[in-house]
Amino acid sequence: MQTILVAAIVAAAAIAAGPADAQDYTGNVNPGTWASSMPMEASIRAQARRNGGSARMSDARASANARQHCISSLPMLRSQYGAGDGRVQQMTSLCRKRGYID
User: What is the three-class DSSP state of 8?
Assistant: First the structure.
């Protein structure tokens, strides 16, 4: 009888402890620590809009970066993988389609 009572108490303690332990699985975490970047990013975007700019990269700047990437990366990729590689051919066709290379 006493063995059954001990087993029942141990089982009840194990069942009750599961959900309580699961809440603190990651330890003591302050949500303000990891969430503080969200308002900061919103503030940066709002300030950029107020100043007449955009928080995103302009299309001209993005296009210049992509052009530079195509011009500098294609020779390296061709030497590394060979001109017949599918990835190199795909990048070459995309760069040609956008007008970055002839």
Answer: helix
Q: Position 89: which residue type?
A: Q
Model pTM score: 0.40
Residue type, 27: G
d(CA 19, CA 70): 54
Inform me whether the pLDDT recorded for 95 exceeds 80. Answer: yes
Alpha carbon distance 86, 60 (integer Å): 29
Domain parsing of the chain, residue ranges: 59-102
Q: How many helices (H) and strands (E) does the chain have?
A: 5, 0
Phi, psi for 69 (deg, rounded to 5): -65, -45
Instruction: Give tens-digit pLDDT for 19-34.
Output: 555 555 555 666 666 6
